[in-house]
Amino acid sequence: MEELRQIWTGGTAIVRQLLAFARQRPGVVGYADVGASLQGLRGLFRRLVPEDIALDVSVDVGNARIPMDPTLFEQLIVNLVSNARDAVKAGGKIRVAARVGPDEQADIPEPRVLITVQDDGMGMTDDVKRRLFEPFFTTKEVGRGTGLGLSIAYSAVKQGSGDIRVESTVGAGTTFTLSFPIAQAEQAVAKPSGKMLRARPGETILLIDDHPQVRRSTARVLTSLGYRVLEASNGAEGVATALCEHVDLVVTDVVMPVMGGPEAVAEITRHRPETRALFVSGYTRDLLTERGAKNVLLKPFRLPELSARVRAMIDQAPGESVTDAPSG
Q: Are 292 and 239 in a shared domain?
């Protein structure tokens, strides 16, 4: 039974990532503000990396923007830092650096934005390096990775005329290098990253998601914003928790084993009519509507979007509806 659950968990994660990537329109990549993104991720990096591993973040790119979807860029960097954390032992070091300058491995005279994620961990074999960007390739155990993160990011980097390279030696660590052209000023007009809206004292969120990594990451973000977070791995577990605890908002995935998000919310509101819910999913909005999910935040989303939607849902007046907004 546990093996079937792991297969289901991995399958839903794969579908979410594929559907999220499919929503990117061909030829439209968006523009990421590298400095603002990396500065905004500092706190998340520190929560991802244990205190017994040194973390150094150096950003010197000014206002340079690159032709890559901002959300995918942030996901790629977080993915690389998470992989580095898994490769490094206590006492090791991870360094994230970004600068503007010539790319010595590219036959291009113009300055580029260069981003490196370096660790002194276990390193990779030549076979792993060759297959690193293949879809579904992962060295992690079942349930800890879909093997899609780097392949999706690789495609997004290439779509933006960028390059991603890896240097690694077994026992001596790994360095990923990202190289991007600098977007022209008229191209790089982008919405500001937005501020993170925090909790008021005593506010509680029930977070329901069957994927452990996604649930833990989201819980860390919400906790950092000041919310008390209760976690559940499926809808049935969420219902049991909601009936025993005061909950200001339910944040839930839609498709899960045992009991899905809409079914769980319906059961919770049957007993607690005042309960509000925000559905977070990578499926298309039409499919979510068919399943009875309203107030939807589509993956991939940026952290300020999550904080704003959560704040809006909690603050809404009884009977008021918060308008769904695309997150792309």
A: yes
